[in-house]
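Give me the fold.
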Amino acid sequence: MPAFDDPSPPDERLFAPEGSAEGCASGECLPGEAEPQSEAAPAQLTSHDVWRRAVEAVRAASTRFGKSLSFARLVLSEPGLLKIAFPTEAGFHRATVFGSARPEIEKQISIALGRATRLQEDSSNASLAAAPRSIAEQELSDRTAREHSIDARVRVHPAVQNVLKYFGGHVEHVQVLEPLPPAGAETPPPEDDA
């Protein structure tokens, strides 16, 4: 006699076969899973968003050109045209953007914005003064505020205060170190032709 008597045939399924997944099981309700989320069309973006997208696209293609473009202040954003102004102290960056780098910069901006876009310089002092701060100016302001905040927190930290109490002295300078770039982001050394 077999040890286990099972009256059901061995192929019998305990559950009814399932149809295709629907709703959350298929991922339809998960953000960004069901259909690829395309970036907002340039017409739906604010001028600030359009400008940031343009600068980031140029930075991704060329760090040097992107750095120079980030010193420009956006005066006017229209479909196919970005009017920019440079502060007097950013003359080097102005020369880079409107010099030999201009075709490459306009090409990268056009790709990022999805339409042919050209740069136009506005050299009037009134436009420069009325324009919002450049991305580089904003980043410098943010970095300076962050460094001041860190400096203040380090100086009043209980561990630092205890060390100063027991050993004497004072904090002269707090240097904020930035994280190293990822290993793949480093520029490879030039190859020798010899």
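The chain is about 40% helix and 10% strand.
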